[in-house]
Every structure is written in structure tokens, then in C-alpha cells.
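Retro notes, item 3 of 5
We never archived the inputs for the glutamic acid complex last cycle. Fixing that now. Sequence and ligand:
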Amino acid sequence: MNVRVRFAPSPTGKLHIGNARTAIMNWVFARHENGQFILRIEDSDIDRSSEESEADILKDLHWLGLHWDEGPDIGGPHGPYRQSERLAMYREHAERLLQEGKAFYCYCTPEELEERKQKAIAEGRSANYDGRCRHLTEDERRTFEAKGRRPVIRFHVPEVDLSFSDIVRGEVTFPAGQIGDFIILRADGMPTYNFACVVDDGLMQITHVIRGDDHLSNTPKQIALYQAFGWPTPQFAHIPMILGPDRTRLSKRHGATSVEEFAKRGYLPQALINYLSLLSWSSESGEEILSVQRLIDEFDFSRVSKSPAIFDIVKLNWMNGVYIRQMDVPHLTDLCLPYLEKAGYKLPERPVLEKMIRVVQPSLEKLEDVIAKTEMFFTDAPEPENEQAIAMLNRESTQKVFWSFLRQLETIGQMTVDQFRRIMKVVSEETGVIGKDLWMPVRIALTGKMHGPDLPLVAEILGKEKCRRLIKRWVME
Ligand code: GLU
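Structure as it came back at the time:
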């Protein structure tokens, strides 16, 4: 079978990471199967859709590195790939169902529907559409039209159980009578989601529908439509939602939720793909750091979890840090540059800049961290970070260390890693101060912090003059 899957976002906002996870899973599966990955824009809700959102979504998918084989921007044999450009197809298919007696015009107003629904509920009957317009005569239709009513088209849902075998969830059955006759084409000619989705998936020959399980309740309606058209039903795979740490659906309340926000903060696309993939799937090897190629090679639906995944930012940060540490310094420097520029730092020559990046690389979880982590190189006079640090600077032994350090500084030309080490050795011999008591005060004077990256490297980057000035600040005359 030639696998064809699709990602079908509605362009009503930024690409949410839950949707990104759906896109990734479709894409990985398509690549694993040597199939096609199709991008379809579901913009039939004209009030909520915008071209800007569509452009943002395409940009974020590109950033993630997900490339589609057919889509609105590149076309393909089953286009157009934007629902707003397929309205004639929806009309034609709705008319086909009308002609076959599987759909009907409905003139009920929202008020009438609501009133009958409340009555039905009060009488203990089903709240579904009651079938009022199923069998209107031509005369009845003309009377409604004369009153200026414009009809919707409703699908007449057959009274049968609807079952399907979901790849992730197994057998799912929706008993007969559960779903009422639903609207497929609105009075203004726009299709509803379920109808457009089936017409598109059918015509685009989609073989597998992989999506969030918030769409599970739509599936029986869609299956009923496939059956009405006499089309083969694709296989469905409903993947569990992503929840926040409080086990409610992941939303803005939990922090960043759009791919764009993650990109801005300096998460790497490979790390985000890796992390989002592992939210609902695991490698048989138990390993967690998996390249995109390994995700593709190893993907297997039988290892997709049925229970909701909890979004864990601490784990994502860790994973992103792993990817940052794997990067070569010149490349990492390129990626960090925009952040440093935004911070307004006066940047040194490229070789010194790369040295700075090398020094802070192990401590970065996101690229934006580079601003705080390199701050020590750009401030004139770093302040001790807390009381404990100040106390350390005021110790008697520290004063001896600083005096000795300043004297040794006069003996060198340039500050280098080796010179710094040598100076510290001599200072230790001269003063008898060793270990933490020796190193920590020097670190605090040079960086303001009690802990941090390799100090000799930091000193080399700061240079002799700045080291002198920073140590001198804390020497009591
Ligand atoms: N436009 C729908 C959504 O964004 C697509 C659902 C589907 O994949 O069928 O939720």
C-alpha cells in the first residue's frame, strides 16, 4: 500500500505544540513507510482563519524541518490544498448525497431547533436533531423559501452501530442513534469540518488519519460519510492529548505553547522533534536522544502510548541542552549571535566570541540562556551575587590572595589559560591558601558568581587589564 497521510491545521492561530506533535507523527510515519505527507489548510471557518496564520504555520513547519510532498504552496495531483479553494467540490458532493436521498435540505432556524431540543430533553428523549425536514415536499420547501429561509444541507445518519479499529486505541464502537443528522453544508455554502474533512481525505486518497484524540467523537460521523460515498475508510490513529503538569489540557496557562515561542527562546528543532516524538512514543532501545533518522527508522505504532502525555519542560530543557552540547562551536556561535545582539552587548572579534561560547556551552539549556551566561564578559563590574559571596571577598585570607594575585599579574605579558594557572599556583604557595578558599574569591571578583565555567578560560577572555581591575576593586588599601 502506498501510504498517504496528511496534516490538516486550521489557520486560526499559531502552531500549537500539540498540533506540531501530530504533524511530526504523520511525517515520521510517512517517511518510515516511504509514503507521502500532505499539508492541507482547513480554512473553511472564514471568520477565524487568516492568511497570516497560514504563513506562520508553514514557517514553523519548515523550521521544524518537516517537508511535505503536496501542499498549498507546492501544489500536487490532488489540489487545491486549501479548503477555501475547494468549495465547488463540497457543493458537488453534498448534491450527490441529496440526489441519492442520503442528505436533505433543512430549513429549521436555530431558535426552532433549540426549542425542540429543550422539549425533547424535558421529555427524556434524545437531544439530537429530530428529523423534521427529512421528508419535506416540494411545496413545503417552496413555502420556506418564500419566507426567505435559506436551507442548510443535513446528512441523514443511518441507524446503525459505527465501529472501527483504531490503530492506537483498538476497537471503538459508537452505538446506533448516538449521532443525529448533522449539517454538512451551511446556508452560505461553506462545508462543516466533518464533511470537508471526509471529502478531502477521500479525494486526496488518504490512507491513514493520524490526529489528536480530541477528534475521536468526530470519527463516527466521518465513517458514516465514507460509507455513504461508498469510499474505503482510511485507518484511524487517535493519539492521546498532551497535558500540563496539573493534568489539564496543555494551554497558555502552562507557559509557552506555540512552536514559535519555543523557537524564539532557542529550542532547537531537532530537540523539539525528539522531545515531542517521545511524548507518545518510545524507542524499543529505551534510549531517549534519538536523531530524526532514528525516529523514522524505529517508528512503530505498537509503541504509541494510549494514555495522555504530560508535558515536562524540565525534561525538554535537559534534552535541548544535550543537543546544544553536541553542536560545534562555530555553528552554535552563529545561532547565539542574534540573542547577544538583542541583549545589546558590544561584541568582540569572532575568535574571542567563539571562545566565550565554548566556555558557556556546557551550561546552556536554551540559546536564550547565552545572554545571562555571557553577561560576565560584558559587564564592567560584576556584583557579587549574594551575601555569602560578599563575605567571602572580605575574608582576611582573600585579601592576601588578591594582593599576591595583583603582584603576580605584573610578571606576565598577556593573560592566558596557562598563565592564569601558573599565577594561581604561585599565589597558593605564597599565601598558603588552597582549594575553594583560593579559587572561589577570585571567581567572585571576576564574575560575581560563586560557581561557573572553567575559570582560567574566563580569565583569558577577560584579559589581563580587566582581571587586574576586577580584583583591585575588592582590595582594601
Ligand atoms: N483542522 C482540524 C484540526 O486542526 C484537523 C483535524 C483532523 O486531522 O482531521 O483540528
